[in-house]
Design goal:
The chain contains 12 helices and 10 strands. α3 (about 100-110) runs parallel beside α6 (about 150-160) and α4 (about 115-130) packs across α6 (about 150-160). The protein is globular and about 65 Å long. Helices cover about 40% and strands about 20% of the residues. It is of the alpha/beta class. About 35% of the residues are buried. β9 and β10 (about 225-230) form a beta hairpin. The N and C termini lie far apart (about 55 Å). It folds into 2 domains: about 5-235, Rossmann fold, CATH 3.40.50.300; about 250-288, no CATH class.
Length: about 290
């Protein structure tokens, strides 16, 4: 499902004695179906406000959104059908688990959408299998008995069980150990491709953004200040630093090597295996 924002504006009510503005201002973007986009910016930049427009938790005060066949502006009503299409995974989603069994937790959303019987069972089983959770072995277990990583998988599965076409991920790897984080990112890539989802990925971790996304929007003070293909955005090292954002680990390493006169190439992001191969080539060259 494609998403288009046209000059979207939303300003929170603020104290009349302050000139500060909070919200999002003149946001325009076009995201094609099946694309994974990264949304980055420091705290207070407007990322969460923007994401909550996607399923009409907020309605634009000016401008409009087009989400598939839905057109949303400040007058829009009866948004239940839109919200069926947009799955929101908030930070630490496992905190929202509340049922006695994993099955019941995953059933809550689909039941509210009208699913029952075999259709409900199929939706839950499919979501669990996509998240690499054994349906028969785990469906009757309490979610509170699981590890942190497994709880996170159950929480994401509860969103997938509603069969969304758009998935909004707000810091989905927060608090996970490195292996669990990498496993989850790989799993999300697989699910995105299998279900042909349009994914919005919000994160402060630049390596995660580089790994998962294809196109990146950088926000500051409620506005988009930089956008482009992920490789192009992460070449703008000084701009990202000026915005108090980091750069991928590979760029930090290359910059360090360049400052020491060991590396003369461009400062661009790369996979860690490619970075390791480059460093090995440099060391071999120094030893030849």
């Amino acid at each position: 499902m494609a998403v288009i924002l046209e000059n979207v504006y939303y300003k929170y009510d603020v104290d009349d004695n302050t000139s500060e503005e909070y919200g999002i201002f003149n946001i325009s973007m076009k995201v094609e179906q099946g694309t994974t986009v990264g949304i980055i910016g420091k705290t207070g930049s407007g990322k969460s406000t923007l994401m909550q427009h996607l399923n009409a938790l907020y309605l634009p005060q000016k401008g409009k959104l087009i989400v598939g066949d839905f057109v949303i502006d400040k007058k829009s009503k009866d948004l239940k059908n839109l919200r069926k299409k947009v799955g929101m995974v908030f930070q630490y989603p496992e905190d929202q688990l509340f049922e006695e069994t994993i099955y019941n937790d995953l059933a809550f959303g689909p039941k509210n959408l009208g699913l029952s019987g075999d259709e409900l069972n199929s939706a839950i089983k499919g979501a669990m299998e996509d998240m690499e959770l054994d349906f028969e072995a785990m469906k009757d277990r309490s979610p509170y008995e699981l590890s942190g990583g497994q709880k996170r998988k159950v929480a994401i599965a509860s969103v997938l069980a509603m069969n969304p076409e758009i998935l909004v991920l707000d810091e989905p790897t927060a608090g996970l150990d490195p292996k669990s984080k990498n496993d989850l990112l790989n799993l999300l890539i697989s699910i995105k491709n299998k279900r042909n989802l349009t994914v919005f990925f919000v994160s402060h971790n630049m390596d995660d953004v580089f790994w998962l996304t294809e196109y990146v929007y950088v926000m500051c003070d409620g506005r988009i200040v930089l956008e482009g293909e992920v490789n192009e955005v992460f070449k703008e090292n000084q701009t990202l630093k000026d915005l108090d954002l980091g750069v991928p680990f590979s760029v930090e390493v290359l910059e360090h090597l360049k400052n020491r006169g060991i590396y003369e190439g461009p400062l661009h992001p790369m996979r860690l295996e490619s970075l390791a191969a480059l460093i090995a080539d440099i060391l071999r060259g120094k030893n030849d």
